[in-house]
Amino acid sequence: MTDDTNMDQIEFWNGDHGAAWARHAEIVDVMFAEITDAVLEAAAIRVGDRVLDLGCGNGGTTLPVADKVTPIGSVTAIDVSAPMLERAQARADAAGLVNITFVLGDASVYPFAENAFDALVSRLGAMFFDDPEETFRRLVPALDPGGRIALGVWRGPRENLWAMGPVAAAREFLDMPPRPGPEDPGPFSFADPDRVRSVLGGAGLTDIALAPLDFQIPLGRTLEEALNFVMEMGPLSAPLATVAGDNRRKAIAAITKVLQENQGDDGIVRLAGACWIITARTP
């Protein structure tokens, strides 16, 4: 891999978008709590395990893993986003967790020691590599033989109304970027089960399985938090940042209408989410 591998993603997650995700870490954890639980269960995390958290973000998966392995285990959490990693470290410090090592770096090229981990987990962090097969091929030696892997990834966009519902409502008022191809780095690049099996199998992993996870995603705890998510962190954040005047007002009104239509009696906005929970092992 060359030194410019994944540079688009590195720049993206160190800009305004990454800063917004860091700022709203608690909202993100509320949204993705079911994915976190499913990934940890699939990975069968045990006391004393040495775990690699791939694309750890704000530490939403890292912290519960650290609790599960207890101080006799350890977690190494890697991410390219400095703002999110700083937030993760602060949250770990506040929780008094001392068995976590945070690494600012690209897992595609980071020199992990051989046989350093019993398990690898990732909540929505595995879909953004330029060459995912080569990335996982490089990660295999870092796990013990029979090492456990559990990944939470999005299925197709049409099944994920939390993302596409607001987009469909507001796109006529916005200058939308080109949609990434199905294998381009991005949220839905692992949506195709055949591609997942090809990528992970090509990397040398075995026992590859995909289990569907369907749930209603709470976009924060209030209508205001849901709107903040869509405007600052969702797929409309970049287009909204570049539009002004009447079109901006119309776009926000259309988004708000979708969110209000999906707001429950408890005030929480929920929209459909659909994931794969992928499991595999090293040979």
Key words describing this protein structure:
alpha/beta, globular, 12 helices, 283 residues, 7 strands
Layout of strands and helices, then pairs:
Blueprint: H1 7-13, H2 16-23, H3 25-31, H4 33-43, E1 50-54, H5 62-69, E2 74-79, H6 82-95, E3 100-104, E4 117-123, H7 132-139, E5 143-154, H8 161-170, H9 193-202, E6 206-218, H10 223-232, H11 237-241, H12 245-261, E7 270-281
Parallel strand pairs: 1-2, 1-4, 2-3, 4-5
Antiparallel strand pairs: 5-7, 6-7
Helical region count?
A: 12
For the sheet with most strands, the description reads: 7 strands, mixed
Rough outline:
globular
* Rg (C-alpha, Å): 19 Å
* Estimated helix fraction: 40-55%
Order of helices and strands: HHHHEHEHEEHEHHEHHHE
Strand content: 15-25%
Strand order of the largest sheet: 3-2-1-4-5-7-6
Query: Mean pLDDT, rounded to whole units?
Result: 95
Architecture overview:
The chain is α/β, with parallel strands linked by helices and 283 residues long. The chain has 12 helices and 7 strands. Helix 7 (132-139) crosses helix 9 and helix 10 crosses helix 12. The longest helix has 17 residues, at 245-261. The mean pLDDT is 95.
Task: Please summarize what this structure is.
A seven-stranded mixed beta sheet has the order 3-2-1-4-5-7-6, with helices on both faces.
